[in-house]
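Forum: Protein Structure Q&A
Topic: Joint prediction for protein chains with partners

I've read a bunch of threads here and the consensus seems to be that you should model interacting components together rather than docking separate models afterwards. I'd like to see that in practice. Below is the full input, 491 residues plus whatever partners are listed. Could one of the regulars post the assembled result?
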Amino acid sequence: MLTDFNIKEKIKEFKRIGKKPPAEYFDLGIAYWLLNPDEGDYSLENLSKKFLHKDPAASSRQDLKGELYNYAVKKLKEYKLEKLFYDVEMPLVSALAEMEDAGIKIDSAYLKRLDKELDGEIKKLVKAIYKEAGGTFNINSPKQLGEILFKKLKIDIAGVKKTKTGQISTNEQTLSLIKNRHPIVKHLLEYRELFKLQSTYVRPLQELVGKDGRVHTTYIQTGTSTGRLSSQNPNLQNIPIEGAWGRKVRRAFIVEKGFMLAAFDYSQIELRVLASLSGDPKMMEAFNNDLDIHKLTAANVFNVSLEKVTPEMRRLAKTLNFGVVYGMGAFAFAKTSGLSAVEARKFIDEYFSDFKKIKEWQEEVKAQTRTFGYVMNLNGRRRWLLQAASMFRSEAAEAERAAINMPVQGLAADIIKIAMVKLKPELEKKGWYGNQVRMLLTIHDELLFEIKENIIKEAMALIRKIMESAYELEVPIKVTAKIGKNWGELD
DNA sequence: CGCATACGCGCC
DNA sequence: AAACGGCGCGTTTGCG
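Posted by a regular:
Agreed with the consensus. Here's the joint model:
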């Protein structure tokens, strides 16, 4: 068995030289991440210090790896993490290696045009902004921008928040608030949007296109505290989708001739998990009958029939549903919904009186976390949250919010990981794997594939079935699929 | 000059 | 005082 750090790179190396990677391997970093997903640094040096209490310079790397392996094996068993490690995380390593190697095709010529187009728009906006400001300054500096807006132009500061360092905030929320107080603000909002897209996506993406015309992200399997993956260089998990310009960026992701892009999305996976974990009858019934969960929630908190739910009511209910998963309080709900704090409180209270089991489940999770110092999801995935018992109220509250979120986010993460692992042998059985069907991206609750056109129907049905049956919840798991020639236009 | 931090913002 | 969970990354700014 291959025991080492960063097995994913080693698997890729085997493939590069045309050899078969070892069937069994043990990634030390990932093992220790399961033991403590908040450690952050999973290098041999750090793990030796933290877990073996040894100076890494005093022993050979081989010896340290051996000792780290022995300790990890013991602890994985003790914490009942073996299934997760051997059956999910380790097989996932090779799946991720193949996805990274596959990459995703980029339309570079299109990106170049988009870049130029953005240049033109940004130049116009800069000119307008300087004119309205009565001089030049660095628009990208929140400090300078704050001075211009509130000192030089004397825009009314009513309702404007300060940052934690006392600076006047110039974030989007602030600018939106004051956008009718001075014409410069509308231009600033537009500038921000376009500059962000250009500097974060359009420019770097062009740089990162390889000789194969594709970008290859790196998935970090030890990158989160909840069990999710993260993606870097480039991060393909935060490519814009909202807004006309954002959508344009997504169109740069294309497919090879003869292929289609297919996106498979777990529908409301976190709320389904929450319904399942809490056993809340109303929420379970909603999913069992495949109802619109936000609409159902609206009908309940507003005490009206489903037909009487307005779009505005549904919007508030949606915010509530998401907020509940995150442990949101009345303050935050008021801020994001535009309600007063009193109204927000009323809605949250109403929510929890409609979905009593959710409240009970959350209180139980919080109590367990305080008592034991950690929280676990259904598969034994564990996060240490000793701060839940802190005497500092805000620190304890922060840990409690993380605690009620982790079993939900963490189980959703497990489900898609299990699906990814199951997909490979099923697609191989069909003889599709790697040549006719390639798994390209994973974006938390979504998988993106490149599929040969001639088998698209059959392949989509199979992938959907595998994803939906990857895990058994107390409610059905539903996957929605979309296809297209680029990532920005799927239907 | 590199590096860390603050701020801001894209996604699920 | 804080107030919504999980990420990665670009630009600015101040420091050594």
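Chain A has 19 helices and 13 strands.
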